[in-house]
Write a sequence for this structure.
């Protein structure tokens, strides 16, 4: 059985991104079909594998995208939606040092921020829309669009893999779907 379909591994992977005071309420394995995440970061410089704080650094606008299916864990806490890749992936990145938007959109970097960590946690209150449709063989297709136009196109499989490594998959899948519907 693949380590991907193991509830303990899923909880550990999602738990790495959940801040103190929050608790994972439900999490499942899903398939990401497409994603786009953007962010604007200030007082930082770009390094080989991320962003680093720098008092003399400028603003970096970043766009992170992927258009190929890959495995992720998706879960939610009291206030957060968390999406974490199951295995290391490569993404398409675009960078710009120009930003003409609102100053409130700029996140100041206070510690090194790996590119892999960008686009993992989102406030549930930042979800603008969520479209849920029936998919093939009992799966559920889900498109989540955030208020800042970030989006995720996911498939929630009916089962959590073979071998019983994710015994709560069906229960948690329904909880995630219900929670996504309730935030709108």
């Amino acid at each position: 059985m693949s380590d991907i379909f193991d509830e303990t591994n899923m909880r550990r992977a999602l738990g790495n991104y959940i801040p103190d005071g929050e608790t994972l309420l439900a999490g499942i394995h899903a398939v990401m079909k497409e994603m786009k995440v953007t962010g604007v970061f200030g007082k930082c410089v770009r390094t080989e594998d991320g962003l680093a704080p720098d008092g003399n650094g400028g603003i970096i606008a970043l766009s992170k995208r992927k258009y190929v299916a890959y495995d992720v864990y998706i879960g939610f806490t009291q206030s957060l939606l968390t999406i974490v890749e199951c295995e290391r992936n490569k993404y398409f990145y675009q960078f710009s040092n120009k930003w003409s938007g609102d100053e409130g959109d700029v996140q100041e970097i206070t510690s090194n921020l790996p590119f892999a960590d960008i686009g993992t946690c989102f406030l549930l209150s930042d979800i603008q829309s969520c479209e849920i449709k029936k998919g093939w063989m009992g799966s559920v297709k889900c498109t989540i669009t955030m208020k800042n136009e970030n989006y995720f196109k996911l498939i929630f499989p009916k089962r959590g893999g073979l071998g019983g490594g994710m015994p709560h998959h069906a229960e948690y899948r329904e909880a995630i779907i219900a929670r996504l519907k309730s935030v709108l």
In short: The chain has two helices and twelve strands.
